[in-house]
Design a protein that fits this description.
With about 350 residues, this protein is α+β, with helices and mostly antiparallel strands. The protein has a domain of about 180 residues: DD-peptidase/beta-lactamase superfamily (Beta-lactamase, 3-Layer(aba) Sandwich). It is built from twelve helices and eleven strands. The relative contact order is 0.20. It has a six-stranded antiparallel β-sheet, sandwiched between helices.
């Protein structure tokens, strides 16, 4: 299908100061260790700035890494809205064939909402143990890892939590995540081609592996910014966005030492709470920044290990560019920004 373009506008008409975007681009170019691939900025529902650094292009699908998790959570929300999933049900209840094997009381106490918020009770990542225990059925391998703490009491960034959430969706719907999301999310939003990595079970892995264009990230962010409503139609269950974007578990210090301010503010349902708004994010700087206080979305693909530094640049340069009212007399500044962004796609 051919997606309808997002409504476009000059930055000034939506209260965005082009000089702030220039300052952000200058800072990116000067920052060591940050290789930008794409940038889309939306304000008041309009695309006000977008650019792709060669050789990346607008239609090219990009590996989203853990930003895939936010799409998996969205699938779970839709399944809950259809009465297929109960977030307060034990995970093992969706896999009755494992009942006899899963004897640890904490494992049996893990609820759907716990895996949705990375609060299974494990104190560290269990991906290697889960696959190592049962490569043919990683959900069973995960549930056979006894949590060190009661579910719901401790955060750990733990890939099998999201894998299990995605596995539940695929079990109750009888479809892959892509197959389930296509008519319910992707097509209504106008999201084009996507590819999602599968494991040997045939499942799409949920915690990573989704390849999609930056435009898909921007559209998901805009849907969440608008409380799950798209062009006047409610796509996500009422109340879901508020649930997904509030902290369900504390994360302070859980993601390592150093300046990790935007990882220390709590975790929702496969979304991080940021210093400003909330976000889906993936390794090496794949971001879907939702900023309700500014009525803005910033979608980003990048190659960097300095993800906190990237966010610092967004907060330092882009946030001040969001003004409370339209700006006048800025046609030349807006035109210069468009020209600069267009030049990014030219081969060096």
């Amino acid at each position: 299908m051919t997606a309808r373009p997002l409504p476009a506008s000059d930055p000034a008409a939506q209260g965005v100061d082009a000089s702030g975007v220039h300052a952000f681009l200058d800072a990116l170019e000067a920052a060591p260790g940050i290789e930008p691939h794409s940038l889309m900025i939306l304000r008041h529902g309009h695309l006000v700035a977008s650019g792709w650094w060669a050789p990346y292009t607008a239609p090219r699908p990009h590996l989203l890494y853990s930003l895939s998790k936010s799409f998996t959570a969205t699938a779970a929300a839709l399944a809950e809205g259809e009465g297929l999933i109960d977030f307060d049900a034990p995970v093992v209840s969706y896999f009755p064939e494992f009942e006899a094997d899963i004897t640890d009381p904490r494992s049996r106490a893990i609820l759907v909402r716990h895996v949705a918020s990375m609060a299974s009770g494990h104190e560290s990542e269990t991906i290697d143990a889960a696959y190592g225990t049962d490569r043919a059925e990683p959900v069973r391998g995960f549930l056979l890892q006894p949590p060190e703490r009661d579910p719901g009491t401790v955060f750990a960034y733990n890939q099998p939590c999201t894998y299990t959430l995605g596995a539940i969706v695929q079990r109750v719907t009888g479809q892959t995540l892509t197959g389930y999301l296509r008519p319910r999310l992707f097509d209504p939003l106008g999201i084009g081609e996507t590819v999602w990595q599968r494991d040997r079970t045939g499942r799409e892995i949920g915690f990573s592996g989704l390849h999609a264009a930056t435009d898909a990230v921007a559209r998901l962010g805009l849907l969440y910014l608008n409380d799950g409503v798209w062009q006047g139609e409610r796509l996500l269950p009422e109340g879901w966005v508020a649930r997904a974007s509030r902290p369900h578990i504390a994360t302070g210090g859980a993601m390592g030492e150093g300046d990790r301010q935007d990882w220390d503010r709590g975790y929702g349902h496969q979304f991080w709470i940021s210093r400003h708004g909330f976000r889906g994010d993936g390794a090496y700087g794949q971001f879907c920044l939702v900023l309700p206080e500014h009525d803005a979305v910033i979608a980003v693909t990048t190659a960097t290990e300095r993800m906190q530094e990237y966010l610092d640049l967004v907060w330092r340069h882009l946030l001040p560019a969001f003004r409370p009212a339209p700006l006048t007399g800025r046609r030349s500044e807006d035109a210069a920004l468009r020209e600069r962004l267009d030049r990014l796609a030219l081969p060096p």
